[in-house]
Design brief:
Number of helices: 7
Number of domains: 2
Radius of gyration: 19 Å
Distance between the termini: 39 Å
Oligomer: single chain
Order of helices and strands: HHHHHHH
Low-confidence stretches: none
Largest sheet: none
Helix content: over 70%
């Protein structure tokens, strides 16, 4: 397991690489590069972070840091994740305030937006693969139902989760009970 400095540097690197979103780089670093968690552990931890108030990736840094090194790990991972981008964004905001009306800058920002969407699709696919490989019908049905409810029908996320979470718990419990008997 990483020490505090290694934890800080890992989250600082994630945040500095994560233009448009850090999730892709967090998963790559935590699961693929350092092997601090399995793909399933990462998915479960990230799913927990969806239910906590605040940005999911910030929640992930705090939960992961606590899991690895306790309160100090939470603080170090959180600081590594938010410290460098805070300094950069502050400098960029000052620059944008001065030069934001330039057409070339607007075109650059359009390109960055497209890259961010591509990264989001890539990490979503990688997070979905372990679910599909398990061939768990409950997980696949829940995934499809939530996607349709939120992505297609545009139902509000809190109401969908209020139904989907208990329904998936109940379905999983029933499926395991059926297998056990």
């Amino acid at each position: 397991m990483p020490g505090l400095l290694e934890l800080f540097l890992a989250f600082a690197k994630m945040s500095l690489a994560g233009f448009g979103g850090v999730l892709v780089f967090a998963r790559r670093a935590i699961v693929d590069k350092h092997r601090w968690m399995t793909a399933n552990e990462f998915n479960e931890t990230f799913a927990l972070c969806h239910f906590l108030p605040g940005p999911n990736i910030v929640n992930l840094s705090v939960v992961f840091g606590a899991r690895i090194r306790g309160v100090a790990g939470s603080i170090v991972a959180f600081t590594g994740l938010l410290g460098p981008p805070f300094l950069i964004v502050t400098a960029l905001a000052m620059t944008y305030a001065r030069y934001g009306d330039l057409p070339v800058l607007r075109r650059v920002l359009d390109g960055v937006s497209c890259a961010a969407v591509g990264l989001l699709f890539a990490v979503t696919w990688r997070m979905m693969l372990p679910l599909l490989k398990q061939r768990d019908p409950v997980a696949v049905v829940a995934l499809i139902a939530v996607f349709i409810a939120i992505g297609v029908l545009r139902w509000p996320l809190p109401q969908v989760l209020l139904v989907a979470v208990p329904a998936s718990f109940a379905a999983t419990w029933l499926a395991r009970k059926r297998v056990a008997s």
